[in-house]
Design goal:
By secondary structure, the protein is of the alpha/beta class. It contains 18 helices and 14 strands. α9 links the parallel β6 and β7.
């Protein structure tokens, strides 16, 4: 292990040196260095403001991983109001760091993965525990945490055969790194079996904390007046995360929209040129959300187009059917969010890189389409057959409910390890 760590640390030092050299010609390298410049002074200042309150460190890859940690942070904050949370990311925009920081939480870019930086980080933070999401280039930090006796948990571990970290050339090193964790929580049985095959024993399959986050978002969803008025006029179909290809596929359906049914579209990006061109092609009355349409406006429109920033999750409560876009071109949006509302879901056929979409399809909670013609056909079938809609909605809600609760399981483990609370815990 000592020899392995020596070569690993040497490789990291060389990597940082080469990265620094590349700042002479690479803007990406310059940005990486600029984001980390003066990190120790900023962190010391942040910790000084916390007045020695207990700190839990969340070691994340990017801001998208925050969704995995958010339910745990919320639960731990409720249990321990005196705790603070230090979020670090390998990749993040300054605005995102600012958005995630508040009086109890500090978000920052992780310094480069070297043994010296790892020691400096732990000296500043002195964390009571660390939560980690799957990522590369954190071995020095994991080693320092393990050597310091700090409980460290890997959450949301999910590896396919292709994405497995245990390649032939680094299998031994990966085994050593995964054995540094106090406990590993996987989202599926396949990952649990893979880790077990490589000699990792402190593991449990608990599911994905994002489902608890979605459930919380559902509870807190605000009422949106135009959508309330639209839903009152009849059944509502919501198409979210739509790309230009999805919008072209939806056009024939808009031309023949059945009576007492409304359509709302939430594009994956607000592009004025794309929106204008599509409205011209539709050649039907369209209400734009930015214009704050009245009830009379909505009554005249075939389509409500969301052309301002609005989370898709806030629209599902009004829907009878949901189409999740991006599946025509390997860019499928989040298909599990609408499942929380017990709504039948339609997705494009190119979703094989999205396990949750496959699970929804196999559970009869989602229908898949390959062409615009198939999309129109499925829409008409669901509109015509109320029993099919109800069946798919029940299956979606059933599947989502099965995945809830992982936050509580992880929380019990953290509580037991950190606070030495005698809570029975069973691995699965």
């Amino acid at each position: 292990m000592a020899v392995s760590n020596f070569f690993y640390n040497l490789a990291n030092v060389l990597h940082v040196a080469l990265l620094r050299l590349s700042t002479l010609w690479s803007q990406t390298a310059r940005d990486a260095y600029r984001a980390r410049a003066g990190w120790q002074a900023r962190w010391n200042q942040a910790m000084a403001q916390r007045k020695e309150r207990p700190t839990l460190w969340c070691l994340l890859n990017s801001t998208s991983d925050y969704e995995q940690c958010a339910p745990l942070i919320r639960a731990l904050s409720a249990l321990h109001p005196d705790w603070t949370f230090h979020l670090t990311f390998q990749h993040a925009e300054p605005l995102d760091l600012q958005r995630l920081s508040d009086s109890n939480t500090y978000a920052a870019i992780l310094p480069f993965n070297t043994a010296k930086n790892a020691v400096r980080v732990l000296r500043i933070l002195t964390p009571i525990a660390t939560i980690v999401t799957p990522q590369r280039n954190v071995g020095s930090f994991l080693t320092a945490l393990h050597d310091g006796g700090i409980p460290t948990y890997l959450i949301a571990a999910k590896f396919s055969n292709l994405s497995s970290p245990f390649k032939w050339y680094n299998r031994r090193r990966q085994r050593e790194l995964h054995q540094l964790y106090t406990w590993i929580f996987t989202t599926d049985v396949h990952t649990l079996n893979l880790l077990s095959h490589h000699g990792i024993t402190r593991i449990s399959c608990v599911g994905d904390t994002r489902f608890d986050q979605i459930a919380q978002t559902k509870k807190c969803a605000a009422t949106i007046a135009p959508l309330e008025r639209l839903a009152q006029r009849g059944n509502l179909i919501v198409a979210t995360h739509t790309t230009a290809q999805d919008e072209q596929a939806l056009t024939p359906f808009i031309w023949n929209l059945p009576a007492h049914w409304q359509l709302m579209v939430v594009p994956n990006a607000i592009n004025e040129q794309r929106i204008t061109q599509w409205i011209e092609k539709i050649n039907r009355p369209v209400c734009r959300f930015s214009s704050q349409p009245t009830s009379d406006d909505l009554a005249r429109c075939s389509l409500l187009l969301i052309d301002t920033p609005l989370p898709a999750s806030s629209t599902y409560r009004y829907a009878s059917i949901v189409y999740v876009g991006g599946g025509f071109e390997d860019q499928l949006g989040d298909a599990f969010e609408p499942a929380a509302y017990g709504i039948p879901i339609i997705i494009g056929a190119r979703h094989h890189n999205r396990p949750e979409a496959i699970e929804l399809r196999e559970h009869d909670a989602a229908a898949t389409v390959q062409t615009s013609t198939q999309l129109v056909s499925v829409f008409r079938s669901l509109i015509k057959h109320d029993s099919i809609r109800k069946h798919m909605g029940l299956r979606a809600n059933e599947l989502f409910t099965q995945h809830e609760g992982s936050t509580d399981t992880i929380l019990r483990r953290i509580e037991a390890d950190i606070l030495l609370v005698n809570i029975p815990y069973e691995s699965t």
